[in-house]
Amino acid sequence: KMLLGELKLLAKISLAAPWRFSRRTFKVTIVGAGGGIGQPLSLFLRGVPGIKELALHDLADMKGIATDLSHVNKSGMVTSFSGESQLESAVSGADLVVVAAGMPRLPGMQRAQLMAANGQVAVKVATAVGAGCPGALLAFITNPVNMIVPAAAEVLKTNGVFDPRRLFGITTLDVVRSQKFIGDYMNISPDKVKIPVIGGHAGITILPLISQCQPEFKGGPAVIQEMTHRIQEAGTEVVKAKAGKGSATLSMAVAGAYFVVSLLRGMRGEQGIVECSFVASELTDAPFFASPLELGKDGIKGFLPLPEMSNAEQEAVAKLIPILQENAKEGIDFARKCLQESEKVLPSVLP
Predict the structure, then answer these.
(1) Region 63-78 average pLDDT
(2) Which pairing describes strands 96-99 and 26-31: parallel, antiparallel, or unpaired?
(3) Which one is catalytic: 57, 71, 201, 229?
(4) Is 124 helix (H, G, I), strand (E, B) or coil?
(5) CB atoms within 10 A of CB 203
(6) Is 71 an active-site residue?
(7) Largest Cα–Cα distance in the chain?
(8) What whole-number distance in Å separates Cα of residue 322 and Cα of residue 325?
(9) Which contiguous run of DSSP H or E holds residue 266?
(10) Nearest residue to 96 via CA among 292, 281, 280, 295
(11) Crossing angle of helices 250-267/38-46, nearest 10°?
(12) What is the DSSP string of 192-244?
């Protein structure tokens, strides 16, 4: 059943891509390709037209997975890279780098603890991208996204290659969950649900704008509050269900594939591609914020205005902004500390 579902997704992605006959092709690198998210994401992307090279990187040896995927009857080649020493080679010349590396959130783990474990991933990948493919789009799945993206931005700024149009935190899973939960509640197909999810990618910073749901959400304030809470805590729901064996991987891989396909469609010049994502933003007082974006050849083509909100949603935004501001500061401080330590340890390899 799982394989059948994967094949249906691949067919859906391919059939929904009117740009699939375009001549432009891309190198896409997945960092963390051997993990619980990275492997299914790699499989989904292997079926996406227009990827001339799918480069798989992880700390562990990737030859086996790359060879396995290379036998899939699709155009393009699959290459493998292993260890920190090959990270820059993996991203060199890439058009898009997707980062799924790092450890999963475990039961009871705070986001700050997760940042301590995964922050180095952001610093190392951003450093490699700055050197090997400074013009690439860089999209992070690695959590905590609210801190990881600001940390990566700080590294890119330090290296003089930061382009805010090209850096993304993938929050598509919040949209996917919103569509599923609302679709089930309203007894309609989830893919018929359209809903913007703004803010961040953790807890109450995740704000599905149910007032803007299409078709109109049928439920009173109490139901809306309950639905919002479930969407915000859906990640914890999975962590608890897996009982210490990981966090959301398969649903995240599906959501990641959706977002990557949208990025590629925008890069090919297709018009009207809109996705929510956590990016450097001036829409609010938070320096990084998730909102609907139009995607284009250079990443972000434009910011859509913030959707209209109910009074309750406006109050929720007011509460989440200070959290996002603090998260951004923590991410930036983490990156600066790492960069300072690198200067002390490796002065000879820095300009």
Answers:
(1) 97
(2) parallel
(3) 201
(4) helix
(5) 15
(6) no
(7) 63
(8) 5
(9) helix 250-267
(10) 295
(11) 40
(12) G-B--EEE-SSGGGEEE-GGG-BSPP---HHHHHHHHHHHHTHHHHHHHHHTT
